[in-house]
Amino acid sequence: MQAMELNLDGLVGPTHHYGGLGLGNLASQRHRHQVSNPRAAALEGLAKMRLLVSLGLPQAVLPPQERPLIPALRRLGFAGGDRAVVAAAARTAPGLLSAATSSSAMWAANAATVSPAADTADGRLHLTPANLVSQFHRSLEPPGTAAALARIFPATDRVTIHQPLPASCELADEGAANHLRICRTHGEPGLEVFVYGRDTIGTPGGRHPARQSLAASQSVARLHGLAAARTLFLRQHPAAIEAGVFHNDVIAVANEHLLLAHERAWAEGPAAAAAIREAFANGCGGDLVLIEVSERELTLADAVSTYLFNSQLVTLPAGGMALICPAECRQHEATSRWLDGLLAADNSVVAVHPVEVRQSMQNGGGPACLRLRVVLSKADLAAVHPGVVATPRLLDVLEAWVRRHYRDRLTVEDLADPALLDEVSQALDELTGLLDLPTLYPFQR
Ligand code: SUG
User: Is the pLDDT of residue 113 over 70?
Assistant: First the structure.
């Protein structure tokens, strides 16, 4: 089957701020309560989408979620009209207000796990929205994610959107950020590699919690009807989690037969790489190209601070691959040198494109975090809701929309500003018109 990869990028919401909410996420901790710039954040994301479109790659937009999520605050006992709810939360529980106002759904790599039709027993595309139970602010995302995905992928005869796994820490699921797909070409059956942080309830006793559970990964694989011979479960290296690798996509990235990974990505060490190689050969008839970065070339700490592995690795229409990396990688000597080596070596990577996504990076989200990869057949791509398909024209329209509605400065104190509520609902209401997604948001129904 011929298939291509659609990148579905989370559009940064107008309440993007630095709440310091990300567990084990060093950038989020470091920027806690600093002043954010939602307008710049959204424009950076749109510029990244524009780059992908200019490379001739299918690109679409995942709209931001409704925030602050007033119903979530009501469930916590804040009562009265919407403004009263916000005021009471701001006064007595500002952390909860920050969580209920987070724009975290922008990190679409955590929105869901995706198995393309070529991998599944019933030949359908399967998506499971992640339950994101590890953190309160992200646990609010699944219903909005499920609703948006159902509108974006309406071909119900060929697409299955599962319910998120039950909301239990035993089944903590953070979606595609802990999932790699290795294949010969996108349309052929691929090896799906699930990476988990813990195989028991609770954490292995480190400073940072392990967010993905093995039971969750196994459940998603079962739901998607994946063949055992083309499915692997690998454990994250505890040292990586300790160094701030809160998702596998901070330490490894794959595209087709190429895998870039740090040597300390997985607990099993070299045995993990060998297992991937063997499963890819036996299950898919493929020959893995593994480019492993040693601790000597780039320490775990540097990998986390530059976010090299949170690059997007994409297949170009004319052949070859491009690496879309954070601009920070080119500002860091060892990483930049490594990138030059990658380009000079005999592999599929023919271009490196640094992108500026600093506003997102400061909350722990690089280029790869901002997108969900969805491999689709031509027919399924044509069935994607046209309103969200990124064209230069739509990106212009969205850019103008951002400039009209987004603030260029937001602090946690500003979250109490009653004017913000009106600003946000006006912006989102208008957005559903631009994306032809009427009544997407609960407040519109
Ligand atoms: O879950 N940050 C997100 C970043 C997610 C990055 N995603 C991937 N690696 N795929 C998180 O930690 C910070 C929000 C704040 O602090 O305001 C936050 O949620």
Answer: yes
